Structures are given as structure tokens and as C-alpha cells.
Amino acid sequence: MDPRVRPASMSVTGFDFAGWSQDQLARVEQALDVWVTADAPHGLDHGAPAALVDAMRYAVLDGGKRLRPLLVLASCEAVGGNPQAALRAACATELIHAYSLVHDDLPCMDNDVLRRGKPTVHVKFGEAQALLAGDALQALAFEILTPDEAGIPAVLQARLCRLLAQAAGSAGMAGGQAIDLASVGHTLTERQLREMHRLKTGALLQGSVLMGAACAEVAACREQAVAAHAALANYGAAIGLAFQVVDDILDVTADSATLGKTAGKDAVGDKPTYVSLLGLERSRAHAQELLLEALAALDASGLARTAALRALAHMVVDRHA
Amino acid sequence: MDPRVRPASMSVTGFDFAGWSQDQLARVEQALDVWVTADAPHGLDHGAPAALVDAMRYAVLDGGKRLRPLLVLASCEAVGGNPQAALRAACATELIHAYSLVHDDLPCMDNDVLRRGKPTVHVKFGEAQALLAGDALQALAFEILTPDEAGIPAVLQARLCRLLAQAAGSAGMAGGQAIDLASVGHTLTERQLREMHRLKTGALLQGSVLMGAACAEVAACREQAVAAHAALANYGAAIGLAFQVVDDILDVTADSATLGKTAGKDAVGDKPTYVSLLGLERSRAHAQELLLEALAALDASGLARTAALRALAHMVVDRHA
């Protein structure tokens, strides 16, 4: 084993990733359960229609690895940031991710019937309700980021909204999906494939890291803060791309039961992937290179508490589903 | 003519509504043209994919009455608010409105092929691109509200995001559309119909008024500001509902060419409307009542510069398309 690639469980720092992530996931699940409800988060005196909220909760709760929330929380921890703000940011990234899956599964997109081992939202609630649930989840993400009275500085609320909107929009996730649409049946160069994934999956993963970093209180030293921010951006870019490379590998090597979604879709859909471009072995090697790149960025960050980010990078690359 | 219902052109204040709205519309059109582009509004070094941006621009530019932006700008003027912030808020409300039309026209929703006299977005660009364009427009609305360097106080940026997210989400526009879905083929009481429209159309119209009002600089007198805010909320609620009552009337009385969208859809779709519930004459009387209610709210606001809001209320009720 390359000694630079040390699994989280062997960390010399003795960091207990399993315990850390269990604690963080409990916070995230509880918060999502509270915020995705018929009661508007700002105490408005009217609720949302129950059928819509059912579809939203189905899309969000009880499923998913919560990778984006964990990245937000780990990144916030690395910079010693505001934990309340980070929890909101963590849930907001998950709502955006969840809405994108709901819309992506629709018949006019990937037409998928299985997600996280359950029927997709439109299969269960109908296409129109799925469309609206996705739309409402996106709005809710921004509502969660801008609480009236939760003691989160307005300047941070605004910055988190900006980062999330950029990560989700036409120069981020939605833009990447549009490139994906246009690329079906075409041969892409590795550069074009990387650009597509940098937006489609990478933007929100990197955005999660940046949102966590944005939760930092005002830094004692501006130069240090800038260097740490740049390093975290590099970390986010590397794991964002690694995530997609591994996704492409798993689409070929794993079965639907393990993935909780339909395996082998890329080949059937004639979609360009890392595996179709580089082959399986070179794709695996590329994922390991990106892992090293992510870890090197953390080493260069000057930040002390990067154990959780380090473990998450391993999780992204070593996952089996 | 009821002397309380004085058309804008006969205003005793001599307010030139035509000139005012022409000026405001020019600002809004120019700003939308700048902000809905492949260049991310924050000077990122990468652009969004051209095909997606084409669909977004098609959905937003060169069409529409821009009622929501005008409400934002008129409301901001009434409270003497920050004009730069109001212009961003104005455009953000229009982006949300535009995205909702794109998604609403999709085959799984209203399946409409004509909008503003042109083929709908999915007819021109395909369903998948239309879905993504709508999603990206929603994200862009929040990005526009949170500029990095435009001199808009962060507390105002956060407040505008909150108001817009509430207006657009599950307890607002998206929630209203979900009620609409569930109500097809059912007989609603007037109360249920009002609740549906309060969310579906009213939330964003009222939200536009509230966003304009939020642009106020810190008020000299808190009590006055609270009273003005409550009055503007009432104004927004009244014209929000009036808009929908008139929409229902026009669906029966106008033709597709005048409307720029398919007329007679409600009856064909077996949708509950004010006309089906109250009949044409009582619906018209109800619209006039709501106009009086909106004007009375302005009278009670204690605000001096309400001429544009007054004229917009007339425009909502007296329109023919």
C-alpha cells in the first residue's frame, strides 16, 4: 500500500471517524426531519400542502450517505467555524442534492425507477408532484440558510446563499447536467468529460467544502485564511472529481442491489464515462491520484483539524456504493 | 364610476404611470439581459453551457408584463428604499416567475405549447433542457440577490433571500401548485379556492411587494414602519388574489391571440376557477372589491409615494391579457 494513502481507520492521529460521522449524521437527520415539514421554518401561520411535503420528505429523509453535509461539517470544523451555521449549510446542500436526484430521475431525464433502494419520487407520487417537490426543496434550501432569529450573522447567511446558488446553478450543477444531456452518444475527450463532471457533481461537492469554510469566524491572519481557503477549494475539486470517477467505476462493477439504484445505466444510455474513456484499471488509478491530490491539499492548508476531511476523502474513493 | 376607483390616468396626483413604468421596465430588461448570461454574475472564470443559457434567456427575455418587478420597484419607492437592492429583487422575482411558467408548461403539468405568443420552452428546447433551465433560473434568482460587492447590506441580502424563498416554496407558490394539482376535477369552496390562489399566485405577488418594502433603509420611527409594512402586506394580498380572479375571467372571455397563451384551458382541464364557482358577473364584482381593498390598504399605510402601487393595482384588475 502506498504509505501516503493511509485509510482513516489507520490514522496516526487516532481520529475516530466512525464516531465522528455517527454524531454528525444524527445532527443532520434530526435537523432535516425538523426543517422539511409542513410548518414553515419561520413560524408562518400556514402550512404547506401535506401531499407536497410527503413527497419532499420521501425524497430527503431516510436515505443517502449525506456526503455533502459531512463535507460541510468537516470543513467547518477544520476552520473552527460557527457550528449552527454549518448545520444549516449542511442541510441546505443535502436539499439541493435531493432535489437534483428527484428531477434527474424524471422520465424526461434519466427515467429511473429505483433510488436508494426505493421507488423514485415520481414513481411513488406522480411526475407533477415530483417536479414540484424538487422545486420546493430548492427554495427550502435557501430558506433554511436565512433564518430570522437564529444568531447567524447576516453576512454569513448571504455568503452561504451565494455559494449554494453558484454551486447549484447554470455554472454549476444544472450546467453540468445540461452538458451531460448534450453529450449522450458523443465521444468526449478526457478534458471535456472532466469539465462536465466538474460542474455536474463537483460543483456541489466543492461548494459544500467552501460553505463549511465560509462558516469561519473572522480569521486572525488574513494571509493564512486565504491560503486555507485555496487549499480547501483544491481539496473540494479533487474529491468532487474523484467521486464521479468512482461513480463511473461502480456503475460497471457493482450490482443494483448494492448501489440502491440501477447499475449499468451509463453503457445502456451510451453515456461517456471515465471507464469508457480510460478503461477500468486506469480509472481506478486516476481515483487514487485524485485522493492523493486531495490529501496533499489538506497538508498544504496549514489547518490543524483536518482528520474528518481526510477520512471523507478516503470514503469517497474507497466506497462500494 | 365609483369615485373611489379612479383609473391611474385620472389620478389627482398627476402621477405619470406610463412614463414611470416605461423607465422601470427599461431598467429591468437591461438588468435581466446582463444577469441571465453565460458569464456567472460573480465573475467566475467559467461560463455556463450555451444551450442551457439559451433556454434560460428564451424563458425570461422579451416577454411578460413584468408585474412582479414593477411591484417590487413601486413598493421600494413608496418606502424610499435602496434602489440597487430593489432592482436585484425585481429581477429575482421575475426569474422565479419565469421558472414557474417553464415548469408549469411541461407535459407532466399543464402540457401547454404556447406562452407569451411563442412556443413554450420545452417545445423549443426539449423537456429535459426546459426542466434544467427552470432549475437554473431559480438558483440564479438567489445568486442575483447575494452579490459580493454591490454595496447592498448583507442584512438586506439575507432578508430578500428569505422572503423570496418563502414566496416560492412549499408554503408559497410551489405549495399552491400542489393544491392546484390535487384539485383538478374536484369542487372547491370559495375558501379553498382562495387558499389555493393565495399560495399559487398570491404568494409571489405579495412577496414582491414585501421585498420592495424590505429595501427600506432603517426607519426613523419603528411604529410607522410596522404599520406601513402591514398595510403593504394587505395591499399585496388583495392584488395577489385580484390577479387570479381576473386571470380566471380572462381565460373565459379572451382569445388565445390576446392572451398569448391558450385560452379556455381551465374549463377543458376541469379546473376550479372563480368563474366556475361564482359566475362571470360576481367574479368581476369580486375583482373590483379586491381593488378597493388594495387601495384602502395604501390609504392606511401612512406612506406618501404610493401612486405607482395604486396604478399597478388598477393595471392588475383592468387588464385585458
Features:
two-stranded antiparallel sheet; Farnesyl Diphosphate Synthase; 2 strands; 321 residues; mainly alpha; 15 helices; homodimer
Query: Regarding CATH, which class of chain A?
Result: Mainly Alpha
Largest interface: A-B, 60 and 60 residues
Rg calculated over all Cα atoms of chain A: 19 Å
Largest sheet of chain A: 2 strands, antiparallel
Average pLDDT of chain A works out at 89
> Quaternary status of these chains?
homodimer
Q: Largest sheet of chain A, order of strands side by side? A: 1-2
- CATH architecture type of chain A: Orthogonal Bundle
Q: Low-confidence spans of chain A: pLDDT under 50, at least 5 residues?
A: 8-12, 41-46
CATH topology of chain A: Farnesyl Diphosphate Synthase
CATH superfamily of chain A: Farnesyl Diphosphate Synthase
Category from helices, strands and their pairing of chain A:
mainly alpha
Tell me the β content of chain A. Answer: under 5%
Order of helices and strands of chain A: HHHHEEHHHHHHHHHHH
Tally of separate helices of chain A: 15
Shape of chain A: globular
Written account of the structure:
2 copies of one chain form a homodimer. With 321 residues, chain A is mostly helical. Chain A has one domain (16-318): Farnesyl Diphosphate Synthase (Orthogonal Bundle), CATH 1.10.600.10. In chain A, 68% of the residues lie in helices and 1% in strands. Chain A has 15 helices and 2 strands. A two-stranded antiparallel sheet of chain A has the order 1-2. Chain A is globular and about 50 Å long.
